[in-house]
Specification:
Elements (H helix, E strand, L loop, with lengths): L2 H41 L1 H6 L2 H41 L5 H11 L15 E2 L2 E2 L5 H7 E4 L12 H11 L4 H15 L14 H13 L5 E5 L7 H18 L2 E5 L13 E5 L2 E6 L1 H10 L10 H9 L13 H9 L20 E10 L9 E9 L3 E6 L5 H9 L6 E6 L3 E4 L12 H9 L12 H14 L15 H13 L5 E5 L7 H16 L3 E5 L3 H7 L2 E6 L2 E7 H6 L7 H6 L9 H15 L1
Parallel strand pairs: 3-4, 4-5, 10-14, 10-15, 12-13, 13-14
Antiparallel strand pairs: 1-2, 6-7, 8-9, 8-11, 15-16
Helix pairs in contact: 1-3, 6-7, 6-8, 11-21, 14-15, 14-16
Length: 612
């Protein structure tokens, strides 16, 4: 038995003993209450005799009801005390979170409506006042929270109503509501889909809507949990610029938890780094980056490309300049290396056309009879045994295209042909999770009678399969937790693991890296490459251009209801200006085809060696 299992066993034993004691106390109290009530009834017997038979019966019923109510109340209180003690021990000993989840928990401690249960020490204050002491109305207006799952915050069916909902609940006059909503719609550029149903919006549009719905109440503190996870590169830049304007123009305090740091890291006033739940760095972006580089902390892999290229080259080269943080600083640093005349062409991921796994021919699609086409005469083939990435702006139709491939939707004309069994990971992983614990989610997949991949396995082999998947996804420590209690990244990992247990031929992933830390992103990419080498076909819909540049074989841009620039990944990213990597922007003046950090480091080393 492992140390963790012993700890769990001990806690459960203590909980059972505590429960037995509390129930015995409850029984004793209930007996005492019963005796007192019977005595009271006996003393009142003379009065009861004077009453009619109906009155006597009613009095007896009231006494019995009071006795039963007190007994049930006391037993319920005993159960609650047991649960509280067990939760306290579990909170102290068993709860496991990834690094980003510590920050997500910290954000929730700053929003009164989201403060979790558990043991709390220390203070969380808003201008010297305990946040827990704020009224609900005051907390809702002063402190705004935008979570990582946009679907969890949308409560109405129309965009305009979602914007007005908070103001309506605050009792704001109708004229003021209309004025504020109109102003916020223009500010965030959502006027074009103002009358749409919220269910028709893409994930990125929902995220923008949530932010606008918070800002329309004129909040003073804005808490953001992965705010750009579902935004395309252009929308992401606009979102960050908007947040910065809110900070500069209106003095709004912003606290942002983010994995993708390329666009926001250098613009922050302070950077806090947590490791194992403890604050290890608290300073300016540049000082924090330099400290992570000098100490060779693996958290450096979550920093912008310019920092990672600098870190990758520092072992063999002595640099006198500061660590670059932005694309501009990175370009200036590369120019300062004096290797302008040494052009290096990185490897090109070019592949000969092979067997077709998915064929899309002349497909048209729209959601309702009178709505505009989402996809129009789109045609392309996806090769078997390759990783194909589909990029595009929010609302371009990427998710719709994935649903057509999965058979969830059908085209109004044209054909989608799929050669093999499909499994799809949706944008919201909770759509796949319906069990009471992490391990039961995976167990349900291997025990599913419709899962042909485990048809010839016995129970022991299936258990081993689940254990291996828990270990590989880093979910062993949270195996007993309910899926709804996991972080967004952990939910994503769990859903990904669940679909892989069906061993599909074609794996369709909608925003697979959303909410996942850089370390597991790398593991997931390597995992996808393993699956590719096994002959699996993988289709990724993503805004994560860095991930797609490293692991995708082919890329296509969904634009104007069709697909453009459908080619190998290096040609795709090297030829783009906006839908490309920061590494390409940094290196493009000196290197022809460098789109990943590893390629940039390799190119700089090789050129410097040639110059020597």
């Amino acid at each position: 038995m492992t140390g963790l299992e012993k700890m769990k066993s001990q806690i459960l034993s203590e909980a059972r003993a505590l429960a037995d004691n509390k129930v015995e106390e409850a029984k004793a109290d209930a007996q005492k209450i019963t005796s007192q009530a019977e005595a009271e009834a006996e003393k009142s017997s003379e009065l009861a005799q004077r009453k009619s038979e109906a009155d006597v019966k009613a009095y007896e019923e009231r006494v019995a009801s009071a006795i039963d109510l007190k007994r049930r109340t006391r037993i319920l209180e005993a159960k609650q005390e047991v649960i509280a003690d067990v939760l306290k021990k579990a909170y102290d000993s068993l709860i496991a979170m990834d690094e980003k989840e510590y920050f997500a928990l910290l954000l929730k401690m700053l929003d009164k409506s989201m403060i979790p249960e558990g043991r709390l020490s220390g203070k969380a204050e808003y201008y010297g006042r305990q946040i827990s002491s704020l009224s609900q109305a005051e907390a809702a207006v002063k402190i705004g929270y935008v979570g990582q799952n946009p679907d969890n915050q949308i409560v109405t069916d129309k965009v305009w109503h979602e914007l007005a909902f908070g103001l309506e609940n605050l009792g704001v006059p109708n004229a003021d509501i209309r004025r504020r909503v109109a102003e916020m719609s223009e500010y965030f550029g959502i006027t074009g889909w103002y009358d749409k149903n919220t269910e028709e919006l893409s994930g990125g549009q929902k995220q923008l809507l949530n932010l606008a719905s918070i800002m329309v109440m004129r909040t003073e503190v804005l808490l953001l949990d992965e705010p750009t996870a579902q935004l395309d590169p252009l929308a992401k830049k606009k979102f960050i610029d908007t947040v910065l304007e809110l900070n500069k123009d209106f003095g709004i305090t912003i606290m942002c938890v983010e994995h993708n740091l390329a666009d926001i890291y250098s613009k922050a006033d302070r950077v806090l780094v947590l490791e194992d739940g403890k604050l290890i760095y608290n300073g300016s972006p540049r000082k924090t980056a330099e400290s992570l580089v000098k100490t060779e902390n693996p958290l450096v892999y979550g920093l912008p490309s310019s920092v990672r290229i600098y870190e990758g080259c520092k072992e063999d080269i002595t640099f006198e300049t500061d660590c670059p943080l932005t694309v501009k600083e990175g370009r200036e640093w590369v120019d300062g290396l004096n290797i302008k005349d040494s052009l290096y062409e990185s490897r090109n991921k070019h592949y000969e056309a092979g067997e077709t796994a998915v064929s899309v021919k002349n497909v048209f699609f729209r959601y309702t009879k009178n709505s505009a086409n989402v996809l129009e005469n789109i045609s392309f083939d996806i090769e078997k045994g390759k990783i194909t990435a589909l990029l595009g702006s929010n609302g371009a139709g990427k998710t719709t295209l994935l649903r057509l491939m999965a058979g969830i939707k059908r085209p109004i004309s044209g054909k989608v042909k799929v050669n093999g069994r499909c499994a799809v990971l949706p944008q919201n992983p909770m759509a796949l999770l319906n069990q009471i614990s992490v391990e039961e989610e995976l167990a349900s997949a291997v025990m599913d009678k419709g899962n042909s991949s485990v048809k010839n396995m016995d129970r022991k082999q299936r258990i081993v399969l689940v254990e291996n998947m828990l270990e590989r996804t880093g979910l062993l420590r949270v195996r007993k937790q309910h899926p709804y209690d996991l972080s967004g990244g952990q939910q994503q990992r769990l859903a990904f693991a669940k679909i892989l247990l069906y061993e599909p031929d074609i794996i369709l992933l909608d925003e697979p890296t959303k909410g996942i830390d850089p370390f597991f992103c790398k593991k997931m990419g390597e995992w996808l490459e393993e699956l590719k080498n096994m002959g699996k076909t993988i289709v990724i819909v993503s805004h994560d251009v860095e991930f797609c540049a490293v692991y995708a074989d082919q890329c296509g841009l969904i634009f104007d209801r069709n697909i453009e620039s459908y080619t190998d990944s290096h040609s795709f990213f090297a030829g783009n200006i906006f839908f490309t990597t920061d590494t390409n922007r940094i290196m493009s003046d000196n290197f022809k085809d460098c789109v990943t950090c590893d390629e940039a480091v390799e190119a700089i080393h090789r050129c410097l060696e040639d110059n020597r």
